[in-house]
């Protein structure tokens, strides 16, 4: 099958897995006193000054690290090769810092910054332009277009070419990111990503899933 339709099983599986994991995360928050917050109403700059925000961010990350078997069980059934990682603590801090240094100086909404704490990636044999992927997503999720959002994340000046899908449940929960790369740009994309890791790659990793695509 040459069309992008062959990837519908993995995208559907991610949606289903996110739905189920949010139930577990909700219970975790209630059992452990974690205060979730509306990510559209909170700004990146508030993370440093409001301990409840930073606690939620990093507790969510820790929660994900302990769910590697959950992901394997739910996503492998789609039959599509994929890679997955939970963002490193230092990588999260670095991204927050970069958003604080941008022109917005931390005034951007948290959901636009921390939308990839959980990241997935698929490598395709055929190149699919962003507008083609968008067409399929609209066809599959047309009645709920915000559930899966499609962005052309290519940055020609940084030698990065890729389409990103963001899986959005609601404003109280963190989005998940799926990177879609064509095999011919995989190496240069990795090199581009690595440039952003140089400031923290010498810090200690704490778990198998942290910033390691597996």
Describe the structure.
The chain has 214 residues and is an alpha+beta fold. Helices cover 39% and strands 13% of the residues. It is built from 6 helices and 5 strands, in the order αααβαβαβββα. A 5-stranded mixed β-sheet has the order 1-2-5-4-3. A hairpin with an 8-residue loop joins strand 4 and strand 5.
Give the overall average pLDDT. Answer: 90
Question: Can you tell me the overall shape?
Answer: globular
C-alpha Rg (nearest Å):
17 Å
Query: Largest sheet, if any?
Result: 5 strands, mixed
Flag low-confidence runs. Answer: 200-208
Instruction: Briefly note the structural class of the backbone.
Output: alpha+beta
Strand content: 5-15%
Number of helices: 6
Question: How many strand segments?
Answer: 5
Strand order of the largest sheet: 1-2-5-4-3
Q: What is the H/E string?
A: HHHEHEHEEEH
Helix proportion of residues, in percent? 25-40%
Distance between the termini: 26 Å
List the helices and strands and how they pair.
Elements: H1 8-32, H2 51-65, H3 68-75, E1 83-86, H4 89-101, E2 118-124, H5 130-141, E3 148-152, E4 163-167, E5 176-182, H6 186-195
Parallel strand pairs: 2-5
Antiparallel strand pairs: 1-2, 3-4, 4-5
Short description:
The protein has helices at residues 8-32, 51-65, 68-75, 89-101, 130-141, 186-195; strands at residues 83-86, 118-124, 148-152, 163-167, 176-182.
């Amino acid at each position: 099958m040459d069309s992008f339709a062959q990837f519908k099983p993995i995208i559907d599986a991610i949606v289903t897995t996110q739905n189920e994991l949010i139930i577990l995360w909700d219970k975790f928050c209630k059992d452990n006193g974690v205060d979730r917050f509306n990510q559209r109403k909170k700004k990146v700059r508030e993370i440093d000054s409001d301990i409840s925000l930073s606690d939620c961010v990093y507790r969510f990350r820790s929660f994900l690290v302990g769910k590697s078997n959950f992901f394997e069980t739910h996503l492998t059934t789609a039959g599509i090769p994929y890679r997955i990682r939970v963002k490193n603590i230092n990588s999260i801090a670095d991204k927050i810092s970069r958003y604080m240094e941008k022109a917005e100086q931390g005034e951007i909404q948290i959901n636009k910054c921390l939308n990839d704490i959980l990241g997935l990636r698929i490598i395709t044999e055929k190149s699919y332009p962003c507008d083609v992927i968008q067409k399929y997503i609209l066809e599959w999720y047309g009645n709920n277009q915000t559930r899966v959002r499609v962005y052309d994340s290519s940055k020609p000046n940084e030698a990065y070419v890729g389409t990103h899908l963001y899986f959005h449940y609601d404003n109280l929960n963190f989005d998940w990111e799926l990177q879609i790369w064509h095999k011919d740009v995989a190496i240069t994309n990795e090199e581009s990503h690595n440039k952003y890791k140089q400031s923290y790659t010498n810090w200690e990793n704490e778990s198998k899933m942290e910033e390691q695509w597996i």
